[in-house]
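Hey, I was hoping to borrow your eyes for a little while. A protein chain has come my way and I'm curious about its shape. Take your time with it, there's no hurry, and the full record follows here:
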Amino acid sequence: MRFKTTLIAVLVITINLFSQNIKSPSEFFEYPLGSQFTRHHQVVDYFEHLAQNSPNITIEQYGKTYERRPLQVAYISSKSNIENLEKIRKQHLTNTKLENTSPLQDKAIVWLSYNVHGNEASATEAGILTAYKLLTEKQAWLENVIVILDPCINPDGRDRYVNWFTQVSNRNINPNPAAIEHNEPWIQGRPNHYLFDLNRDWAWATQIESQQRLKIYNKWLPHIHVDFHEQYINNPYYFAPAAEPFHEIVTKFQKDFQGEIGKNHAKYFDEKGWLYFTKESFDLLYPSYGDTYPTFNGAIGMTYEQAGHGMAGLGIKTAEGDILTLKDRLLHHTTTGLSTVEVAAKNADKLNSEFKKYYNDKNYKYASYVLQGNPDKIEQLKKLLDRHEIQYGKATSKSVSGYVFAKNGNGQLKIDQNNITINTDQPKGKLVEVLFEPKATIKDTLTYDITAWSLPYAYGLNTVASKNKVNTSSYSSSVPKATLKNNVYAYVFDWNHITDAALLTDLLNNKVRVRTNEKMMVNSNHNLAPGSLIVAKRDNKHIANFDALLLKISKKHNKVNHHITTGLSTKGVDMGSSSVREIKQNKIAVLSGRGISTLSYGEVRYFLEQDLNYDYSAIPARNLSAKLLSKFNTLILPNGSYRSILNESKLKALKSWVSQGGKVIAIGSANQVFSSSKLFKLSPKKSKKDKKKEESKTTKLILHKDKERDYIKKLITGAIFKTKIDNSHPLGFGYGNDYFTLKLGSSTYDYLKNGSNVVTLDNNTVVSGFAGAETLKKQQNSLIFGNENIGRGNIIYLTDNPLFRGFWDNGKLFFANAIFMVN
């Protein structure tokens, strides 16, 4: 007994000595935490200080952002746990069957993620304080909890916000909402470098931050994951339990345990008299959030929302007349963060047992998904599966029966060798079910995001979902080989995926002249579908070692280069036909500035830089003029509101520029500026019911409590529809007859009377997702993608956004066609 008492005393003294070496955030930064915003490099320095002065924390850099800022996590636990992290990790993953050692039973893994939105800046400040308090005041919890703390998921966005605020703010706090420091410029701090919303990128992993985070997240698969956010200034604090709808895969335990955590938070908030709300607004349906993605991987995934956002600065006056300060905001987040760890510490055994049950449960609607189609599309899907550590193989069956996605019903699919098969009987089976299911069950149509996302539609692959497990062999992808031959008249490449467009831009960037055929050709026993890339030797005599260069570029993009030996075709047009034209370099301008969606602008920017590696110029909308347009031949209008940007006189100037050979590519709501002007042929679609309403002008009486639900009858919240393609038009090159479009809004347009209706929605049946009854009627016989010829130029109307969040892979070729193939 005396020895035990002495040992405890030694431990207390040791802990106190280490605690004395740790500086508080305010001591380290030399300003009171909450009195200034902390820049990212200071955050990195502070966590290094903690790691150097405490045995209870170690840090790991897991990557860098596009702007080269470090991404790191801190592991915080007892000294013994920190020394045995790898052993504990493997024991934990044994409960998922991803490892095979003794299962973890008595330790909880809690992951706290801060500042996924850069201008929700109290989050990182709270992460700093939470780490400090865990190391100095709450060490008792650390015996059976591993806290993984990511202080800043989005350093580029955070520093963009913090640097701007520091530059424009008053010396003293100015709580007046009208002050400049409470009104961010057009490109705000919320998104990352490419202006993507990282909180909607967990499942799609298009961004480098998400890709690197998933590597380390999948190494741990925590029991609990919390995403710390900020909402608008007049809202009180929000914490779990979440709102309906829940995806049907969410378990009763996951729902109930959210409630347990919420009760603990409420206890602390009640003591302080702080306002809060639960069970509203933030649902658990869309799979790509920082709460849903962890939930579908077995965690208790939660969002915590503090009032503030980019408006709040260091302090702002709310509608109730209170001053909301940064210190208030970070204390609220610190309280819920610590409360979460406390609940986990008390329930480690339960968390482990229920986590194991989650991964042992094999009750799936479908046992296997078999996808086949273009090899490049399959390769792109494989990259995503690898990022999520989802297992796949190749089906050995000749045919599979089940739900055929293209038919939107049951049937049979003949299977060829070029397939990829994903079985749900694997550790990531539940995530597979969510990402691949044909239709998500929606119990409540009041949702926070899109309601359809099924990957077979997104990647444009023929798919069958079978209730019987499909036998598979291991997947081995044969990389196509590019070759050189003698007596070559021209090298030819297929055109049916966005990676073909990346090949094209690489050729053009290397001064290689490339042609394309607008009509079908058969030459040298090779079918050249419209849009094929033709690189004739006669066109490229200016390039020394031309054959070697072509081989190098072909291998870089893993593309087969077919060979033709003559200009004379056995079928269709010959090489000298006017239908075989050269693809010229585009001088592209992308409009930017107030009124234009930063998200859409970022999608275009990412597409041009990362998918294509193609040069462009971003031009401010305020500078748009006929003189400026004369320097470009393609103008891209991202989604946005253009009525204040393009008035009637500017539209006339724009039309004149188009008539002289210019090209406009309009995305989403950008099309409204053309449909509202008589200068263009695009017209909004109205249903007969709408016309009768306008004539009668009667008002339907709706109870106040029912207004929100009545309004959603007019909305489409991210639903999938099957459309028809005119693939003889250059905008449709590389596609088959059908395309599944993700429709994000209710705006609809009539077919063009004097133009090309390339992609049309003839049948308004929803394939997947929610569409309100009133707007659904207007979708019948509406335009999705079209082209209007004006003089020598074109306006391309993309009424749905094929670049949405960068994950709808099968839509990207339309955008490449708009740039390279049209006109």
Notes: Residues 1-15 have pLDDT under 50 and may be disordered. Residues 588-821 form a domain with the Rossmann fold fold (CATH 3.40.50.880). The CA atoms of residues 204 and 440 lie 17 Å apart. The first helix runs from residue 2 to 21.
